[in-house]
Amino acid sequence: MNLNKCNHSFFSQKSSPYTSLSCSLDHNTKLKVDRGEYFIDAKLDLHGCHIDDAYYKLVNFIIKNYQIGNRCLLVITGHGNSTNKVGAIKNNLHKWLNDTKIYYMVLYFQQATKKHGGKGAFYVLLRRNKNLDTTFKK
Fold first, then answer.
1. Separation of alpha carbons 117 and 90, rounded Å
2. Which domain holds residue 93?
3. What total number of domains does the chain contain?
4. Is 111 helix (H, G, I), strand (E, B) or coil?
5. Span 36-81, pLDDT tens digits
6. Is the Cβ–Cβ distance between 87 and 47 less than 8 Å?
7. What distance in Å separates the CA atoms of residue 104 and residue 45, rounded to the nearest whole number?
8. CA distance 116 to 20
9. Distance, CA of 49 to CA of 65 (rounded, Å)
10. How far is CA 107 from CA 6, 48, 98, in A?
11. Residue 98 belongs to a domain with what CATH number?
């Protein structure tokens, strides 16, 4: 299976574990997300959660927000503790966002800017839910 197909939100070979690129994301939207200028619809703070609990909270958070039509999410993972250079939640986020339950919902994700948590937080941009009646969206 080629993980670099444009019709999925898999990660390109050039991307780091803290970013995901999608061929269907336009340049201006990517810049807005990268700069922290895209409106954040919802936040999830996983800081201090047990890793198994964090996984389930993230999956449910993505599904819920996709279903109601939210697009840009802020996921706070924390930096990790002093014994680990990278926190377990932050380290697993890349894998979790590619989980078969939610990978098709995720368009892009990127480490947050300093004003939104920097290295301990991530922007997650969801695909538009085409099954949603947008006339009733916010």
1. 12
2. 40-123
3. 1
4. strand
5. 999 999 999 998 899 999 999 999 999 999 999 999 999 999 887 6
6. no
7. 22
8. 18
9. 20
10. 11, 26, 11
11. 3.30.1370.110
